[in-house]
Amino acid sequence: MRNRPLPMTRPTVGLPEQVTIYEVGPRDGLQNESAVVPVAVKAAFLDRLADAGLAVLEATSFVHPKWVPQLADASELLSVVERRAGIDYPVLVPNERGLDRALEAGVGHIAIFASATETFANRNLNRTLDEQFAMFAPVVERARAEGLRVRGYISMCFGDPWEGAVEPKQVAAVGRRLVEMGCGQLSLGDTIGTGTPGHVDAVIDACVADGVPLGQLAVHFHDTYGQALSNTLAALRKGVTTVDASAGGLGGCPYAESATGNLATEDLVWMLDGLGIEHGVDLDALVATSVWMAQQLGRPSPSRVVRALAG
Ligand code: HMG
Ligand code: MG
Questions:
Q1: Of 83, 81, 97, nearest to 44 (Cα)?
Q2: What is the mean pLDDT of residues 78-107?
Q3: Which residues have any ligand 1 atom within 6 Å of their CB?
């Protein structure tokens, strides 16, 4: 991997100087694998991502183990992985039972995950759109009282496979309720990857117009239609500074038809390097990690950058 190609760094006006990469590979990536990855491999994945400089690692999910068997070992994983100082290990939590389990595991940061649409709330959470807030409210309240940080995801912000188009103001209304509930960060999910850059502008504008502070927004793009990177650039131009990505482009949602991998962290890092935006990640170490993970999973990484550099 010596003498590898490098993007030419050409800073562009109107973009942030620094971006926080919120790595979701261990959670979003592995929840969608048909095989259950052994705990030791998950722990090694987290260690290698930390070694590569990623400072936020969404480690696992405390959801119902029958709903996502791939992550049923959440408590065991957190008991074996070395949680390093200075690295944040958020976990997904849908309800109070999940919060109990997360607190027992000593987590400091949770993410609840709402839906912008009725159908997906039903399919992913077994709740109506309104009922999801009743499920989350006590979770957020208790988590904050325990001193935990709370992120709120919204899924289907850019389209829903059952309902079709989703109005930006519908996304904003869900976002405002999550922020009012006490979520410190709001991640806008393009669960099925149908968004395009102008649509990203519209959703961010609608959220901000509805009172969601821009500084609390993050973006979470799946790359089904190859739009994740251009959508990320649109969000950066709007001033968003937290971007979710998944090492090697792993990812998807078992409860969303046509959801494929997330924006690959390597593809994001390549673009940020070219734009002169700080991110703190060692690309070579990250590519080596994704190549190793692809071997564990028995199939090549879908990331363009991994494929280009792995040879
Ligand atoms: P439910 O069946 O309605 O649960 O599922 P319930 O509240 O009726 O409880 C039924 C039983 O399950 C009870 O046990 C509970 O204790 C138990 P019983 O009293 O009958 O013996 N239970 C649990 N056990 C362990 N851990 C728990 C838990 N909760 C209940 N947390 C529920 C409701 C929300 C739990 C279920 O629908 C669920 O787990 N859904 C999760 C689905 C999921 O993980 N999807 C993928 C993540 S979201 C995503 O990928 C999108 C994202 O990436 C953003 C984007 O891309 O857009 C974030
Ligand atoms: Mg996702």
A1: 81
A2: 98
A3: 28, 31, 61-65, 67-68, 92, 94-95, 97-98, 101, 113, 124-126, 153, 155, 189, 191, 220, 222, 253, 255
Ligand positioned closest to the Cα atom of 115: 1
- pLDDT score of 256: 78
The CATH code for residues 20-310 is 3.20.20.70
- Crossing angle for the helix pair 197-209 and 168-181, nearest 10 degrees? 50
Q: What is the DSSP string of 117-145?
A: SHHHHHHHHSS-HHHHHHHHHHHHHHHHH
For ligand 1, atom 10, the nearest C-alpha belongs to 64
> What separation in angstroms does the CA of 272 have from each of 47, 58, 151, 206, 224?
23, 21, 24, 26, 21
Q: Ligand 1: which of 63, 64, 119 to mutate, most ligand atoms within 8 Å of CB? A: 64
E strand spans, 191-263: 217-221, 242-245
Token pair 């000593």 in the structure block, residue: 106
Nearest CA to ligand 1 atom 35: 64
Which of 134, 135, 86 is CA-nearest to residue 108? 86
Annotated domain spans of the chain: 20-310
Taken in order 158, 160, 165, 167, the sign of the CA dihedral is negative
**Span 130-154, mean pLDDT?**
98
Q: Quick check: 1 pLDDT over 70?
A: no
What is the model's pLDDT at position 236? 98
Q: Residue 105 pLDDT > 80, yes or no? A: yes
Q: Which atom of ligand 1 is nearest to the CA of 187?
A: 54
Choice between 34 and 28, residue whose per-residue pLDDT is larger? 28
Is 207 catalytic? The answer is no
First to last CA, the chain: 8
